[in-house]
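Re: weekly structure request thread

Next one in the queue (271 aa):
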Amino acid sequence: MLETIKTTTEHLNSVTNNFAPDLGIILGTGLGGLVDEIKIVHAIDYPDIPNFPVSTVEGHSGRLIFGHLGGKKVVAMQGRFHFYEGYTMQELTFPVRVMKYLGIKHLFLSNASGGVNPDFEIGTIMIQNDHINLFGTNPLIGSNIDELGPRFPDMSDAYDRSLVDKAKAIAAANNIKVEEGVYAGLTGPTLETPAEYMYVRIIGADAVGMSTVPEVIVARHMGIPCFAVSIVTDLGVPGKIEKVTHEDVQRVAEGVQPHMTLIMKELIGSL
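Done, posted below.
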């Protein structure tokens, strides 16, 4: 794996003239509009990157963007990879490994989720302060590569508290309502049953989705501080559960996108 990471990193450095980004961004379903705020220097399609997976999900464009945002040099994944697409945990988190070797010091993530907290509404912006791994596996299973991180990484601070507090302050200053909570990660691709929604609420989650957790685990393994925002696109609360399609999820996420973008942009600029 280490040689593969280095090969891909060397290729990207050659294509981007050693751009050396300060931070990485992973954009989820319907949230790719943040790319419009990036002053793009290089845009590389995933199929043109050695050893990269290729996104198969509608709404995930599949480009690696290098540019400037909030006065910082960034590398952004416009389209992420998911376990339900058939990739291994190591494959879908491979881009995070490459970002580390490109030079990032922070990782920002966004996702669409189902809200299980009864106080949440469709369109709620939830800043993640913790997660529950319900994927049934872990991207760190297998032989540990000491160059990447420790065998038993601590996850007590999976989401950087200082970044969470800064984001909440930015939201308040711009009259944007945000919530803070725990994200449960499941495999998908089915949306949850009412009993499953109830289960994740009982065990302590506020929202549930099909991403983010593997990437954060790998980032923390390598010592990268993380910040994640979840957009509640449907509700898994008894009495409020309705049939939902992927198009519904995209539509809601796109409607809230300007607020998420503002928070992300100002937070990045504050670093």
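DSSP finds seven helices and nine strands in the chain. The longest strand covers residues 106-115.
Next request, please.
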